[in-house]
Design goal:
This protein is mostly beta strands. The protein has no helices and 11 strands. Strand 5 and strand 6 form a beta hairpin. The protein is globular and about 40 Å long.
Length: 123
């Protein structure tokens, strides 16, 4: 399955964005989906993940209460609603999928990765 993240942009602090992870060449209805982010010179870090079995989600402490993950199997897509964005949220956001029912923050577990989308939070 091929993944593509979209929806990034330049926003001011406090704004919201909805990031979309679109799958092609296969279905993600039976895949767990995760979001990671990366800034230049730093490792990719975990943001959120959702199991495929029961849609239970896991969030990094830095985004809890501000970011919400959802999925629409009919659209073969997953979403990351980002609210109250902060400058430290600036990064390239990537989505990833795994056939394992998991919400792990371990990037090695996620075996399908898409191209990222840049989110810039600046006044």
């Amino acid at each position: 399955v091929q993944l593509q993240a979209s929806g990034g942009g330049l926003v001011q602090p406090g704004a919201s964005l909805t990031l979309t992870c679109t799958a092609s060449g296969g279905t993600i209805s039976r895949s767990s989906v995760a979001w990671f982010r990366q800034t230049p010179g730093k490792e990719r870090t975990f943001v959120a993940a959702m199991r495929w079995r029961n849609s239970i989600a896991n969030y990094a402490d830095s985004v809890k209460g501000r970011f919400t993950m959802s999925r629409d199997n009919a659209q073969n897509a997953a979403y990351l609603q980002t609210n109250n964005l902060k400058p430290e949220d600036t990064a390239v956001y990537y989505c990833a999928a795994s056939i394992i029912s998991t919400t792990t923050a371990n990037s090695n577990t996620w075996n399908s990765w898409g191209q990222g989308t840049l989110v810039t939070v600046s006044s």
